[in-house]
Design a protein that fits this description.
GO biological process, one term: protein secretion by the type II secretion system
Radius of gyration: 24 Å
Helix content: 25-40%
Strand content: 25-35%
Largest sheet: 4 strands, antiparallel
Oligomer: single chain
Strand order of the largest sheet: 3-2-1-5
Order of helices and strands: HEEEEEEEE
CATH topology: minor pseudopilin epsh fold
Number of strands: 8
Family: Belongs to the GSP H family.
Membrane topology: Single-pass membrane protein
Keywords: Cell inner membrane, Cell membrane, Membrane, Methylation, Transmembrane, Transmembrane helix
Structural class: alpha+beta
Distance between the termini: 84 Å
CATH superfamily: minor pseudopilin epsh domain
Number of domains: 1
CATH class: Alpha Beta
Shape: elongated
Subcellular location: Cell inner membrane
Length: about 170
């Protein structure tokens, strides 16, 4: 007297689980989107700070200028911050990448973010100070939602970040 038991799920049970998962995903996606957006802004801000610190370190190390400029191709300066930026040692202090300088790092622009700066070229002198006075670079999502960060570079070359639009 053995009874036969079937193992597994019925089609109705499976469809119920799929419907519940779909409802939970629809509820969770908007909050997940804002988390992704916030992480994109934070990552790009950190890349900017690292690039500026690298340029400043190169300037102090070589006793010449270290620069960060906007670059679309990773070989020349030009364009805007959205296309990307280039870190290089400006050995002749002319503000241009002309073949004699060493390109240290290139960071491509990021989709879904807007990066704006008060200048397209940030240069640090041999003492690590910013050339031309204090500067700023802002990062925010394309849809201008709340995660906005501003990287401020003071006259001494030190950077700090605020969670507000750049002035």
């Amino acid at each position: 007297m053995y009874s036969i038991r079937t193992k597994g799920f019925s089609l109705v049970e499976l469809m119920t689980v799929v419907a519940i998962v779909a409802i939970l995903a629809a509820i969770a996606f908007p909050s997940f989107h804002s988390t992704l957006q916030s992480n994109r802004v934070a990552t790009t801000t950190n890349e900017l700070i690292a690039s500026m610190s690298l340029a400043r370190t190169e300037a102090i190390r070589s006793r010449e200028r270290g620069s960060v400029c906007t670059s679309a191709d990773g070989a020349t300066c030009g364009g805007d911050w959205n296309s990307g930026w280039l870190v290089w040692s400006d050995l002749d202090s002319n503000g241009a990448v002309n073949g004699t300088e060493t390109v240290v790092r290139y960071v491509q622009g990021h989709q879904k973010l807007t990066v704006t700066g008060s200048a397209n070229l940030l240069a640090f002198d041999g003492r690590g100070r910013i050339v031309g006075g204090a500067q700023s670079v802002g990062v925010h999502p394309d849809d201008a939602a709340t995660p906005i960060r501003c990287v401020l570079i003071g006259p001494t070359g030190q950077t700090r970040t605020t969670q507000a639009a750049c002035q």
